[in-house]
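User: quick one - fold this with 5-O-phosphono-beta-D-ribofuranosylamine bound?
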Amino acid sequence: MSGTLRTVVLVSGDGSNLQAILAHCVTGGLGIRVVGVISDRPGVRALDRASQAGVPALTVDYAAAGSRPAFSAWLAAALSRLNPDLVVLAGFMRILDTALVEQYRGRMLNVHPSLLPKFPGLHTYRRALEAGEREHGATVHFVIPDLDAGPGILQYRVAIHGGDTEVSLRERVRAGEHVIYPRALAWIAAGRASLKDGAVWLDGAPLAQPVVVDEVTS
Ligand code: GRF
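Assistant: Sure. Structure tokens for the protein plus 5-O-phosphono-beta-D-ribofuranosylamine:
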């Protein structure tokens, strides 16, 4: 995949990752164009951020859909109308149907707030602190039907400090997501990174591990 990729961002909440991606699109060099933002909930800040950036924003309301199959069909139809090359999950809190994930295999990405394969699922900050971990972070990965299990492209790693709380850790990790998500998208748009035979390939070779970016501390 290369060229300017038509990209749809799926959101559920604040949309700070969406904002980071949009900001990089404005400054140029990402190689993607956000052609739509879809939220599974009305009234979230991410929708306002999209509108302010002049990006078509719509809600595929999970609650209004009434059932998971109805929601999935509605979302699939909304996506296909936007005809994306890439589907970017940015704080999207729904588990997608296998058929939809398969349809966009190799073209659907997610950011998860942990150093996968550690801590898939929810409450990663709390769980990392409770487990006495010395480091935590975030992973940008291709989406496969198994939750938070797709191969990782980039990770952002922070050290956990003695005084860290869920809030302080989240703040530092999220700042890192805003660095690694645009970078992963740029690699994909440039044709440098792709999913092949279940593995991430970067610059012509399979990655044994995601590329790690360490938090810069002064
Ligand atoms: C991020 O921390 C991401 O890792 C998780 O949900 C959060 C979304 O944040 N999947 P935002 O909506 O992009 O601000």
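One thing worth noting: Residues 166-189 form the longest helix (24 residues).
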